[in-house]
Amino acid sequence: MTSTLFITGATSGFGEACARRFAQAGWSLVLSGRRASRLQALCDELSALTDVYPLELDVRDRHAMEAAIATLPAKFAKLRGLINNAGLALGTDPAPQCDLNDWDTMVDTNIKGLMYSTRLLLPRLIAHGRGASIVNLGSIAGSYPYPGSHVYGATKAFVRQFSLSLRCDLQGTGVRVTNIEPGLCESEFSLVRFGGDQARYDATYAGAEAIQSEDIAETIFWVLNQPAHININTLELMPVSQTWAGFAIDRSAN
Ligand code: NDP
Ligand code: 8X3
Fold first, then answer.
1. Which PROSITE patterns match (predicted)?
2. Quick one: CA dihedral 240, 84, 228, 26, positive or negative?
3. In the chain, is it the N or the C terminus that has fewer CB atoms within a 10 Å radius of its CB?
């Protein structure tokens, strides 16, 4: 039986790399994202390898998600995998200087969008049963705070706890849940976060040997291909170059 995988945010970065990795292995794919032309180009390319279904979707739009998922073609209806990857960080300014619209966008995308896809696709994963998997993209920012991580980190803390809690509710269904928590990875993520500032993007990755999207795709491929009786709960990755900063102390008191 063909395995089918649903990926949110497949138009760049980890999602695109996962689409390529799983297509090589012959998985059927439902690929979603907002940028229609990128999505179509990827689907056209990968359809030489496997069955691919494009869904131009904004994960924040609950009604559009409901309609698109309800009308998935029968061929793609039963899922062995869901990668909840669509997400973003906006800015690194200190909280008092942040735009509330940016905070709304992160909550709506990283929390509510992930909730929608999970809840709407759960019946299809449960129908597959043993061996099915949900992989959520958390972050080290969900466990370790740093200046400017505030709402982004908090959304990823939600993803971490939601992933663990889901496991409890899915006990007996055979459906597995994994939270992947990467550190510094090179992708458009930072261009989005820095508002398109290419120089800041370049400085972030210079000499850092950051994790690449293909590394994350390989990790997720490994997670989904574990024997059906094994659940990888949480997987935290960093480049060797990255460690934790020390605690910060304000020394302005006299
Ligand atoms: P990218 O910016 O390269 O990719 C993000 C993807 O999410 C794009 O395909 C984008 O597609 C999609 N997306 C964003 N908003 C929406 C939306 N509202 N609806 C549908 N799709 C959306 O980033 P990465 O691949 O690096 O990041 C993927 C995930 O991994 C994110 O959740 C991120 O928080 C997390 N992560 C990233 C790390 C990093 O350092 N890069 C480290 C740890 C975690 P489109 O714009 O076409 O909609
Ligand atoms: C992205 C990794 O360290 O920039 O989630 O927050 S970090």
1. ADH_SHORT
2. negative
3. C
